């Protein structure tokens, strides 16, 4: 069984969400090509509710496990794409959408040292992301932030306008064509030759149904956060 070395822990906080990031080098996983070494990310939640002057913890949930290669983490663009895949797959949007953006901003640079060390040693990495979510009676009101962006003004849980969604381009996917993606980052399924995909103004494309559901919760691109017109305030 792989041994763990070079433990790194980074406690961070953002309002009602807190998280601890841990990265371990995996001895015994030396790869012939360093970029092919595995990067295993385990994402777990602990959810607490403040009810009637006491804290109630939800039933513990199993880790969501994601497997990449070290090559996916060597460059900032592919690393952000991998981390976005983790946060989407782990259901971060099912909770407070604002904390996800802050977590991504911390997680991307956190990987710098573990990735460099793993590449030099030819080892894999095992990473744990442990999130504590605290829900208070005022959470619903707090989530209606005037910026809708958790303090940064460019990301938040504001749905896209119906008219803007209708105006998105629908094209057929062809390998080697104008669509750069090979899979839909929302559902993680590969794009099949000839299937119709919906494309954002930033040119990122997704399955039409997947993107429509996404835009019902957020008016920004899942990959690059390019914004389209948002729905009117209620």
TrEMBL record:
> What protein does this entry describe?
RING-type domain-containing protein
The taxonomy runs: Eukaryota, Viridiplantae, Streptophyta, Embryophyta, Tracheophyta
Which cellular components does GO assign to this protein? nucleus
Q: Name one GO biological process term.
A: ubiquitin-dependent protein catabolic process
Q: Which domain of life is it from?
A: Eukaryota
Pfam families assigned: zf-RING_2
| Keyword vocabulary terms for this entry | Metal-binding, Zinc, Zinc-finger
Q: Name one GO molecular function term.
A: zinc ion binding
Give start and end of each RING-type domain. Answer: 184-225
């Amino acid at each position: 069984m792989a041994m763990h070395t070079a433990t790194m822990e980074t406690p961070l906080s953002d309002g009602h969400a807190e998280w601890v990031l841990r990265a371990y080098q995996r001895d015994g996983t030396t790869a012939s090509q360093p970029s092919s070494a595995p990067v295993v990310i385990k994402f777990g939640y602990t959810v607490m509710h403040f009810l009637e002057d006491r804290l109630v913890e939800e039933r513990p949930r199993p880790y969501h496990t994601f497997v990449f290669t070290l090559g996916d983490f060597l460059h900032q663009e592919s690393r952000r794409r991998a981390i976005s895949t983790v946060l989407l797959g782990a259901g971060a949007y099912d909770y407070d959408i604002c904390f996800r953006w802050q977590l991504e901003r911390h997680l991307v640079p956190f990987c710098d040292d573990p990735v460099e060390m793993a590449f030099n040693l030819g080892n894999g990495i095992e990473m744990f992301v442990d999130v504590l979510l605290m829900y208070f009676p005022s959470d619903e009101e707090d989530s209606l932030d005037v910026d809708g962006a958790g303090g940064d003004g460019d990301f938040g849980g504001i749905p896209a306008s119906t008219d803007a969604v209708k105006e998105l381009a629908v094209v057929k996917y062809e390998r080697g064509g104008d669509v750069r993606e090979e899979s839909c980052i929302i559902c993680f399924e590969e794009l099949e030759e000839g299937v119709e995909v919906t494309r954002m103004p930033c040119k990122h494309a997704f399955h039409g149904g997947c993107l429509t559901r996404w835009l019902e919760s957020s008016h920004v691109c899942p990959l690059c956060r390019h914004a389209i017109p948002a729905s009117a305030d209620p």
